[in-house]
Amino acid sequence: VGLADEVGPLEGCAVLSGPPVSFEVRGPGTADGDVVRAGETLAVTANAYDESGDFATFAADDAFNLTVFVDGVRESSRAFERSSGSRMRATWKPLFNATSNASIHLALTPANDSTRLLFKTPGSGLKVSPGAANTAATWTPFLDALEARTDFIAGQTSWFTVTVKDAPGNVRFVESDLAGGVGTWGSLVVTQVDGADPRGPGAIIFRGVDAVMDNVTGAHNVSFTPTVAGVIRVSVRVESDGSFLYADAPVRSNAVSASASEVFGVGVDAGAAAGKTTHFYVQLRDALRNPASLEAGVTLAVTFAALGGSDGSVSLGSGGPTEVAGRPGRWKIPYVAARSSAGDYRASVSVTLSGGGGGGGDDDDVIGGGAKSFTVHDVGGSIDPAKSVLLDAHGDEADVLAGGDVADEIVFHAQLRDENGVDVDEKGTALVAVTVLGLDTTGGGGGGGGGGGLPPIYSPVGLLASIIGGSLALYGAVRFYGAVRSQLFKARAAKDDDPLLAEDIEEEDDAGSPKKWRVLSDNDDEDDENLPEDEKALRSILDAKSPGSPESPSNDDKYASASVVVAVEDEFAHDEYM
């Protein structure tokens, strides 16, 4: 009897594979000498086999990790996930710093025992190369270091370094990283910005293509010589996203150079009236003519002398030399000249650097290279409006009084001078205007030229009250005409009989004589031919283009400028314009 007859018909059965005993691991970093890039996400696959070489069968609790060892020490582990049957997959990202001599290996280990190596990168292992340039890893430490620098000096060669890194902090060692172009971090430029013109364009003094990389450290050396006191501005156009980065650091002026410094001002140019206090200025500069400050222990020594055997004398005024706020290196020096029995006479003044390293009055230390001579007038002349001037808050003759934002305080001085060009004593009274105007570009407010609304300038009375808050003038009246100059609002002279276009305030000076002040407002329909002659003259001044003003600013421009015209009114009520 056959076996089949004894047991019945035969049936097929499945033969299960055994548990995993070996693995085939593939992917970046699994072969001897593989080079992977720092910061990149990498995928590794593993096929499991049983002892017969067939695909293995995993038990329910089998779990494995992809473990990274650096110099034999576990750096990190990531779990393998089963993708299909006996295949597993894991991802990893080399976020550690790459070093040339580190021994780095990948290993497949049981999840519960990282010391049991089921696979390990053979031989010497893998290498990690720096990744793509990373702005945060590069710029933040550079910015912190640059902003802490206070040692940049005009005329002296300076330097800083930029170390370009990837996301994990690896130095990239790419020689062209600051030159710009594909594969680089970006294009670096160093610009010097003059402190006297902080809104100016500046001048480029270094480009990244000229940076020299240290082959040992990977740092790029940037060397330059600033010539102006102000700031250096480091800008980088980042290649990866086209963004721009900026960082500033201050540049100080060099030591004071007496020969490059100067003595100037009406007190030495036009002279003085005997018995009256007048002044001149000293502007200290370094050898590159940057405004410079006195070193510790150095002072200004002022020496006056009457010339030509005159019995007149000149002495330093009360308070002596004082620094002018907001003007580095500028000093104001008052003096009083006594009368001479001979009438007018000539005198001289020399200003020297005294003390410290500046010496004690040698010829080399005389400001401007020598003494300045001037005339002392026995009797002051009559006021000459044509020679009188407006001064800004720093004592400079004003082309532009001030610049800033709405609500900024604007200070200027009306300095009356006589026919000799000499300051009339105590006539340089400070005048203040606050919130001169604010532009309304919404187009919603009333009349005015240029298609927009009238700027919200405060009323003539408000402006007027602010201006005449300071006391002014013993010699006749001074009239202030304020006008906004912009596309939206143009000043027009006002008729005397139109109360809506002009605001007059009558005051009395110390002698009881009346003074008239006027602020003009807008009227595009004004008939030029009906204006008085003095008002026509004023209008021609107001309508003249301001130097540097935009030809036709759009309604979107968030700025405007204001012009001020000052008129001195004589005893016959005739205006003469300063």
Structural class of the secondary structure composition?
mainly beta
Low-confidence regions: 358-363, 426-526, 537-562
Portion of residues in beta strands equals 25-35%
Q: Any idea what the radius of gyration is?
A: 41 Å
Shape category: rod-shaped
- Give the rounded overall mean pLDDT: 74
Please count the helical segments: 5
Cα-to-Cα separation, first versus last residue: 141 Å
Describe the structure.
- With 578 residues, the chain is mainly β.
- Helix content is 7%, strand content 34%.
- The protein has helices spanning 3-7, 135-147, 266-269, 460-467, 533-543; strands at residues 22-26, 35-37, 42-49, 64-70, 73-79, 81-84, 87-92, 104-110, 119-120, 127-129, 152-153, 158-162, 186-194, 203-207, 212-213, 220-224, 230-238, 244-252, 262-264, 272-273, 277-283, 299-306, 314-316, 322-323, 330-337, 345-354, 372-377, 389-392, 409-415, 429-434, 477-485, 502-508, 514-520, 561-569, 575-577.
- It has a five-stranded mixed β-sheet with strand order 11-18-17-13-14.
- A hairpin with a 6-residue loop joins strand 15 (212-213) and strand 16 (220-224).
Helix-strand layout with pairing:
Elements: H1 3-7, E1 22-26, E2 35-37, E3 42-49, E4 64-70, E5 73-79, E6 81-84, E7 87-92, E8 104-110, E9 119-120, E10 127-129, H2 135-147, E11 152-153, E12 158-162, E13 186-194, E14 203-207, E15 212-213, E16 220-224, E17 230-238, E18 244-252, E19 262-264, H3 266-269, E20 272-273, E21 277-283, E22 299-306, E23 314-316, E24 322-323, E25 330-337, E26 345-354, E27 372-377, E28 389-392, E29 409-415, E30 429-434, H4 460-467, E31 477-485, E32 502-508, E33 514-520, H5 533-543, E34 561-569, E35 575-577
Parallel strand pairs: 2-10, 11-18, 20-27
Antiparallel strand pairs: 1-3, 3-7, 4-5, 4-8, 6-7, 8-9, 12-16, 13-14, 13-17, 15-16, 17-18, 19-21, 21-25, 22-26, 23-25, 24-25, 26-27, 28-29, 29-30, 31-34, 32-33, 34-35
